[in-house]
Specification:
- The complex is a heterodimer of chains A (455) and B (226).
- Chain A folds into three domains: 1-127, Rossmann fold (3-Layer(aba) Sandwich), CATH 3.40.50; 149-292, Rossmann fold, CATH 3.40.50; 296-451, Rossmann fold (3-Layer(aba) Sandwich).
- Chain A is 40% helix and 16% strand.
- With 455 residues, chain A is α/β, with parallel strands linked by helices.
- In chain A, strand 5, helix 3 (79-89) and strand 6 form a beta-alpha-beta unit.
- By secondary structure, chain B is α+β, with helices and mostly antiparallel strands.
- Chain B folds into two domains: 4-34 and 109-223, ATP-grasp fold, B domain (D-amino Acid Aminotransferase, Chain A, domain 1); 38-106, Dna Ligase, domain 1.
- In chain B, the strands form two sheets. In chain B, strands 1, 6, 7, 8, 9, 10 and 11 form a seven-stranded antiparallel β-sheet that branches. Chain B has a four-stranded antiparallel β-sheet with strand order 2-5-3-4, covered by helices on one side.
- Classes of the chains: A alpha/beta (455), B alpha+beta (226).
- Chain A binds chain B through residues 216-223, 226, 258, 260-261, 263-265, 267-268, 270-272, 455, and chain B through 118, 120-124, 126, 143-146, 152-153, 156, 160.
Chain lengths: 455, 226
């Protein structure tokens, strides 16, 4: 199955556009793509008619141009007919928004779609889904543009069984400045499943991290997924729902998929170095960290802080997540001490965490980061930057990024997520250094690097 | 490929839905895994000869198609040193529901571990490993990997256990022979892959491990119901 035209369409038909209901999913999808995206969009309704002074096409077959992708948002029982028309027209794939299939007990109707698609090599996303969002290109979410917060174009590929979780995650990504290459809500995943998405993202040059929200796999599908992961060249993040008994009940009634024994899932993810996020916050942190550092670390972290308290909070979080804080070599400590400003030389705590105190200035932080990076016991630096003291300049982000790039060891920063400190945050992020908005978030990022370490 | 004898064992156990301990152990032995010296008999005289020939105590177990979980039926007696003890227990075991035979085997001492397998709905065969014995469910200190596993997986599984030091050795006590354990588990996982379409789950519990080796002291195979 070639998914290129489905995920990167130049032309798109939206089937089901209504002449009477402005809020119909097909109308929302047609309007936003027609007005705001470069994809050339055609409205289709079997009854024809006119919407906003445009004539609706009675069928995709009536459109003269070649159609790369069709969004189908008609009642479930009409979907097979529309799919048949798409296949006849030579459309290269579809997003089937419509619900009323396996999730509602209509397994036969869904199977009919699968059989038709298989015979014609016609890939489709869904049914019962939101479809795809590719920033600046195409958006099949039937949510009005003004209601959602969208992340920018970036390098995270995201796949979700749940449309709601997908949209919510988009908001979180946007809040953290994480961009996506493509987000796909696969819904009932009748045709395109997680494994297909893994293959797509693995070869997609715009994607650096592949993240999944998974409720459950079908029979032996987990094994297939893992077999693909084994040969995937990019870090893979998963967030699993349906871990508890109640959660599993909710999942079963929600998407018609069976959640299996969670421990088996979690242990196998570990076995194959898939970074399993334990919460939606971790999912966000993991994606950001792994988009900067795909290779992973052993988990020997060196912490630089400007306050004793932040160092202790980070050390506690490290302990909790199984990340170790090795002792710093004597030589490293001596070198750092020699180069520190005389004012702080005798008040700093030369250990791990390394507390430079609120009296430190940029050069103290930069020197410490440089020499800590050179310590062979350390494979990752956490820089906890509270920019409240006068010695810390607005350039500290850019300066530390240069150190990280020069020394070649992953660095993760914590900077409070406030507009006032944007210049520091961007100093890091524009240089591909991840920034967390909490101390714990920074430690979570280190955890991501540990979890995806090649075994 | 599964040996002919192994196939025969599975075939004859199908109607029961699980494989009796002696047959399950025979299957493991065919795969080249160690089991204790044993005899299967209803004659006290033969059992007594076996006890006398043994250098140490024996274990006696009732073999019954009606007893899947032996401990719950008091169908296992460990630490039998004397002929009298053996006689009393054999008589008692023979009265248990459905008892066909008494399995008398050499009692091996060492650390009890569990090596198990489960045919998972989402992932297919997986291997479970942890501290064994009758309280495994209580502690649930186990590691799980998708089969087939590699020797490295056995080391990482051990490292992920809370009780890892009990296996690797602590306070001057010798640990388990990790090479033999890894070898055993890799072979076991290969067997499980071959039995993928036949089995539901397998318990090797306990496997008795010492610095010199690993012996499967009990085995239970639950077959798939088709």
């Amino acid at each position: 199955m070639d998914l290129k035209y489905l995920f990167k369409p130049s032309t798109m038909a939206v089937v089901g556009v209504s002449t009477s209901q402005d809020n119909h999913p097909a109308n929302v999808i047609y309007n936003k793509n027609h007005l705001r995206y470069p994809v050339k969009t055609f409205p289709v309704n079997p009854k024809g008619g006119i919407l906003n002074r445009e004539t609706l096409y009675p069928s995709v077959g009536n459109i003269k141009e070649d159609i790369d992708m069709a969004v189908i948002a008609v009642r479930a029982e009409y979907v097979p007919k529309v799919v048949e028309q798409c296949i006849q027209k030579g459309v290269a794939g579809a997003v089937i928004i419509s619900g009323g299939f396996a999730e509602a007990g209509n397994l036969k109707l869904q199977q009919r779609l699968v059989d038709m698609a298989k015979e014609a090599s016609f890939p489709f996303v869904g049914p019962n889904c939101l479809g795809i969002y590719a920033p600046d290109h195409v958006d099949t979410f039937f949510l009005p543009g003004e209601r959602i917060i969208r992340p920018d174009r970036g390098n995270v590929g995201f796949v979700s069984q749940s449309g709601g979780v997908l949209v919510d995650q988009m908001v979180k990504f946007a809040g953290q400045g994480i961009g996506v290459s493509l987000a796909v809500s696969i819904g009932n995943k009748a045709c395109i499943k997680e494994t297909d998405m893994l293959d797509w993202f693995d070869q997609d040059p715009e994607t650096k991290v592949i993240a999944f929200y998974i409720e459950g796999f079908e029979k032996k599908e987990g094994r297939k997924f893992i077999k693909r992961v084994e040969h995937c060249s990019k870090p893979v993040v998963v967030f699993k729902a349906g871990k508890t008994k109640k959660g599993i009940e909710a999942v079963s009634s929600h998407t018609a998929s069976l959640a299996g024994n969670y421990r088996v899932f979690s242990e196998i993810m570990k076995q194959y170095c898939v970074a399993e996020a334990d919460s939606e916050y971790e999912l966000t942190s993991f994606c950001e960290a792994l988009s900067c550092y795909p290779k992973g670390i052993k988990g020997n972290v060196g912490i630089i802080s400007l306050s004793g308290g932040h160092g202790v909070i980070a050390a506690d979080a490290c302990e909790l997540y199984g990340i170790s804080l090795p002792e710093i070599e004597k030589e490293t400590m001596n070198t750092i001490k020699d180069k520190l400003s005389p004012e702080i030389r005798n008040i700093v705590s030369l250990a791990n965490p390394l507390d430079l105190t609120g009296s430190s200035v940029d050069s103290d932080i930069v020197t410490s980061a440089r020499h800590l990076s050179r310590d062979t016991n350390i494979d990752c630096i956490l820089a906890l930057l509270i920019p409240y003291s006068p010695g810390v300049s607005a350039d500290i982000g850019a300066k530390l990024s240069q150190v990280a790039r020069n020394e070649g060891k992953p660095m993760i920063a914590y900077v409070p997520n406030e507009d006032k400190y944007k210049i520091i945050i961007e100093g890091f992020e524009l240089n591909n250094i991840p920034v967390a908005s909490s101390v714990e978030g920074a430690v979570m990022m280190a955890k991501a690097l540990v979890r995806c370490r090649p075994c | 490929m599964l040996k002919k004898d192994s196939k025969k064992i599975l075939e004859k156990s199908k109607s029961l839905g699980w494989v009796l301990e002696p047959d399950a152990k025979a299957l493991m032995k065919l795969q080249g895994l160690d089991i204790p010296d044993f005899i299967l008999t209803n004659s006290f005289e033969i059992a007594d000869l076996f006890l006398k020939a043994c250098d140490g105590p024996v274990v006696a177990k009732a073999v019954s198609k009606k007893i899947l979980h032996k401990t719950e039926h008091d169908a296992v007696v460990t630490g039998i040193f004397s002929s009298d003890h053996l006689k009393t227990e054999m008589t008692r075991l023979q009265k248990l529901d459905g008892c066909e035979n008494i399995l008398v085997e050499h009692m091996v001492k060492g650390l009890e571990i569990i090596i198990g397998a489960k045919n998972d709905f989402q992932f297919g065969p997986v291997i479970v490993f942890g501290i064994g014995g009758t309280s495994v469910e209580i502690y649930n200190d186990t590691a799980i990997r998708m089969a087939p596993i590699k020797p490295e997986d056995v080391f990482s599984m051990t490292q992920s256990l809370k009780a890892k030091e009990i296996i690797t050795g602590y306070r001057g006590r010798a640990g388990v022979n990790m090479e033999i354990l890894a070898h055993l588990m890799v072979k076991f996982s290969n067997l499980i892959m071959e039995l993928e379409n036949d089995i539901e789950s397998v318990d090797l519990n306990p496997v008795i491990c010492t610095k010199d080796g690993c012996v499967i002291a009990d085995a239970r195979i639950i077959l798939q119901t088709s």
